[in-house]
Write a structure and sequence with these properties.
alpha/beta; 8-stranded parallel beta barrel; 11 helices; 10 strands
Amino acid sequence: MNYITLNNGEKMPQLGFGVYQIPNEETEEAVYQAIVAGYRLIDTAISYGNEAEVGAGVARAIAEGLVSREDLFITTKLFVNNVFNQETAATAIDESMTKLGLTYIDLVLLHQPYGDTYGAWRALATAQANGRVKSIGISNFDAAQMIEFTRMNDVKITPQINQIEINPWNQRKSDLAWHEKYHVQAEAWAPFAEGRHNLFTNPVLSEIAEKHQKSVGQVVLRWLMQRGVVALAKSIKPERMRENLNIFDFELADTEMDKIAELDMKESAFFDHHDPKIVEWFLDRIETK
């Protein structure tokens, strides 16, 4: 496993296991099997509704001696309804720790760039200062929002992470350059774009995969590793978990990286966070709860 050193000195595995959309009844076993396979970064969120199940899988692996707590890097995220203000964010952090069954969380992110993100950031800064959260960051902030947030938050803490969509169809080249300038580590969600635009049968990716005797998924993850991006992979199948981890024994040539670069569509495979309809959709979700 490769490790990335964040701007606060904490080390983070470069490849992690995500649990988005894994059914609750399968999450504990999936997390446990991911740790057995070798994953040490586990990523969840309040909005996924499975923090307790993630915590159970982690606790089981620790109880069986597979890992120590210090071996693991656990991430969760505060959703829009958790960032009405500093107080609601602080409460959400407490609730996440209880559900996860942890005495500290390695990384907590602001899941969306909506709400009182500055107030919530103060709550995260306090939790970081008292050791309950090791690292803090943001998610789904574009480069301009990241720069504004980094320079204007009154606790003067640069986010350690910005978790954004990065995949062959949405490569975020300009965004990554700005993240590097501001020392904010980029982390990719949906690295496979959920298979959209026939990613797993794309001729360019398939040709590269065949040359290295790897899968297209492994090529995509290796491409992200070589770009210095932290990535999250998801599967409930142990054999696929192991396959996704088996990417550190080969390297893509510059010519292959260039071919993948040509696949960039420069647009989300999912939705635009600046689209008023998307903002409205997020707010409708929390107002009806």
